[in-house]
Amino acid sequence: MKRLYLRKISALLMMCVLLITALAGCGKKAENVSDNAATEAPTATEEALTPTEAPAATEAAGPYYSADASVESVVTDAAGKGMVGNWGLGNEYEIQALLTKYNQPTTYLSQAFDMDGFDDDSILLASAMTYNELGLVKNSYDGGYGYGDGVKYIDMNDEGVAMLEDNIFTTGKFAKENPETVKAFIYASMKGWAYACANPDEAAQIVYKYGSSVSADHQAYMAGEVKKLVETDMTGAAVTNYGNMDDTAMQQTLDLAKKYIKLDDSAAADKLQTLTLDDIRDTSFFTAAAASDGKFTPEKKDVSIQLKWLPQAQFMGYYVALDKGYYSEAGLNVKIVPGGGDIGETTAVYTGQVDFGVTWVSNLIAAKAGGMDLVEVTQVYQRSGLVLVYKINK
Amino acid sequence: MKKLRSKFNRQTITTILYPVLFGVLIAVLWQTQLLHKIIGADTFTLPLPKRIFGIITDNWSNILINVRATVIVALGGLVLGSLFGYLLAIVATVFPKWGSGGLTIASAFNAIPIIAIAPILNNLTKDFSKDPNIRSMFAKMLVVMITCTVSMSINSYRGFTELKPFSLDLMESYAAKKTAIFFKLRVPNSIPYVFTALRISVPACVISALVSEYFAEYVIGVGRQIRENIVLAQYATAWAYIAIACGIGIVMYVILLIVEGVLLKGRR
């Protein structure tokens, strides 16, 4: 019995020793690794990052940027240091367009789905959605970083590199076979969005009720910001026709997509360059839904919609339409399928796992170029919600 | 003798021929789209081999950059992890009372999923270097190292301790010192076990390198390309990188088998 006890203690001791040696091992390896990596670096970054001198104005008062620094000086400095962050995976095109606008290489750091990289200064110019990450950075509620006025941001809409984001899409085949279902779904969804924008606080509560990935406070903040994206276009003008597909904004999105979506598959890359607005969107369903009296005879009653991300106020219109019974009034039985992580909403819709999906127009264009028969039927967000946030010197 | 050799040859021929024939059969079924009918896929999610091969040849220089990054991480992690594992086994042999128990606990490290440790190590190595490429490569190597350490330490510990019957008694009857026993008996005895460990570690190091790239700060590597292309619905390109990833694993395994065959000739 005593021996067993002894053995247990010695095992514990051994574990401590192992841990310590493991940690010591980590330190020792440092030299090897940097050797390897140093030789790798020049080839890995094709577009060599040539460090540029930070503008004097930004360096004078502290480690960050002065409150009145120009967009160009901030972008040039951060890109020169190689510290511009984005999530990648199809979210990077607006950032690359902005970097190109200021003659910078289009490489960026891979940003995690939190703002820790921005917080610990490994990313100077971090991507953020106005309705999500920007709120977390500024506010000090649960999960927030509490920077308040200590940060400023660069708006893609102001810079002329905005691309359209959240829309509603389906497959060309589904739209052709179930036109009434598509119209009914658009009608009820946009009715939900209209209500949500008129009552953002209530909409936030409804979303929270249906299973939220974030706190109630953040949900309320998000609803307020999402409302702005639905009600304002890229030029800042008010939009009353919710869900309208504006040709100018759509064309700008397509043009930027053609320039910045890089596809290794030559067949897909060629197809991307030939795409026109008519290939990616069909306005007929939206026009018909807007003109209708709200009575539909859907061909398929049980439909589902795949969200691009976790349940949050970004998708409040759908949750409101479900909660207020707008979908059932239109003769539909709707199931909302949350996304998250690496769920490809385009693939889910294309393979028929779900009938509708919410995605960014650029992702739809990439999928279309890859050979998926997808078509946008409504454009919910009228302007880009993507910003680049940076800290300012106090 | 002659009969034996011909028998041996026939055996090696069949062991190579059958898998190759099976592979060719699958490739033919795949290209003729019969495979798609059997498993109910379409040519979009499962593109034809010809198209995949075309993408590989079109983007060869770009692919090489990613392959290089992945191989450096995999090999670096494999070497570091194996050396560290061997060292742990030596420590465990020198202190036999703690040794076996300690190694059992160490093997618990093997149960940590790569997906869980990769982002954590990413955050822990933020201060390592100012260059994101270097620090993210370091983080990736640590992930690979953790997966390679355990199999090496457990296997080589067995090699150090499970000696041939009476060989230890013989050495002791010669009044051999402990160091002599260690270098003349234990170390040579551990070599086949080292290769057993490597047979596990080599495929594992490629897999963990690919997965760690998913979460790395710096966008590079075969694994990262697979993820990007699948999310962007570029399945043909994703399949091209999957094929490359398989190639890396197979080539490294074959190299290991050849080295093992040369070094352990006549020992097995």
- SSE pattern of chain A, N- to C-terminal: HHHEHEHEHEEHHHHHHHHEHHEHEHEE
Mean pLDDT of chain A: 86
Determine the strand fraction of chain B and express it as a percent band. under 5%
Coarse morphology of chain A: globular
Uncertain runs of chain B: none
Number of helices of chain B: 11
Could you state the CATH homologous superfamily of the largest domain in chain B? MetI-like
Helix/strand-derived category of chain A reads: alpha/beta
Average residue pLDDT of chain B: 88
Which architecture name of the largest domain in chain B does CATH use?
Orthogonal Bundle
Number of domains of chain B: 2
Strand content of chain A: 5-15%
The termini of chain B sit apart by 20 Å
Sheet bearing the most strands of chain B, described? none
Kindly state the number of beta strands of chain B: 0
Tell me the Rg of chain A in angstroms.
24 Å
Largest interface: A-B, 58 and 61 residues
Number of strands of chain A: 10
- What spatial form of chain B do the alpha-carbon principal axes imply? globular
Secondary structure layout plus pairing:
The complex is a heterodimer of chains A (394) and B (268).
Chain A lengths: L1 H43 L11 H4 L11 H10 L3 E3 L6 H9 L7 E2 L5 H4 L5 E5 L3 H6 L12 E5 L11 E5 H6 L1 H20 L1 H10 L6 H16 L15 H14 L5 H9 L2 H4 L3 H8 L10 E5 L9 H8 L2 H4 L3 E5 L7 H6 L5 E2 L3 H10 L3 E6 L6 E6 L3
Chain B lengths: L1 H30 L2 H6 L9 H10 L1 H35 L1 H11 L7 H11 L7 H30 L5 H7 L4 H38 L6 H10 L3 H29 L5
